[in-house]
Write a structure and sequence with these properties.
Layout (H helix, E strand, L loop, with lengths): L2 H6 L5 E2 L3 E6 L2 E10 L3 E5 L12 E8 L2 E13 L2 E9 L1 H15 L2 H14 L1
Length: about 120
């Protein structure tokens, strides 16, 4: 990631490891989650990779005990062996779980509030 790209990033990414599945149409790939934010996620590219970058994807991140974060996502970039996705849609339950996860990992309520305001401005 270049300095200018890092400076433009509005949402802090947190490193997080959870059982994660990426799907598109009838294809489904178990993937390794690298990090996530309120606006997207980064994964290791699965092998074999047969996803159509022009079509939407779905991701399901299992946080445990029946708690999942599910999002409709779009591929935003592909670097080395990693795929970056931006969230196109997330349901209320999932955003609540994701918000709490980000809050716990940031450890800074002011930073979380700033990110939530930035997210609301993008909608």
């Amino acid at each position: 990631m270049t300095e200018s790209h890092a400076e433009r990033r509005r949402f802090k990414r947190i490193a997080f490891d959870a059982k994660t599945e990426l799907s598109q149409d009838q294809n489904c790939w178990p993937v390794q989650l690298v990090d996530l934010s309120l606006k997207g996620l980064l994964i290791q590219r699965p092998a074999p990779w047969l996803g159509d970058p022009k079509q939407p994807f779905k991701v399901n991140i299992h946080l445990g005990a029946g708690v999942d974060v599910s999002m409709d996502i779009e591929l935003s970039h592909e670097d080395n062996d990693q795929l970056g996705f931006v969230c196109a849609h997330i349901g209320l339950d999932s955003i609540s779980h994701l918000r709490r996860l980000i809050e716990l990992n940031l450890g800074d309520q002011a930073e979380l509030d700033r990110e939530l305001r930035a997210l609301a401005q993008q909608e």
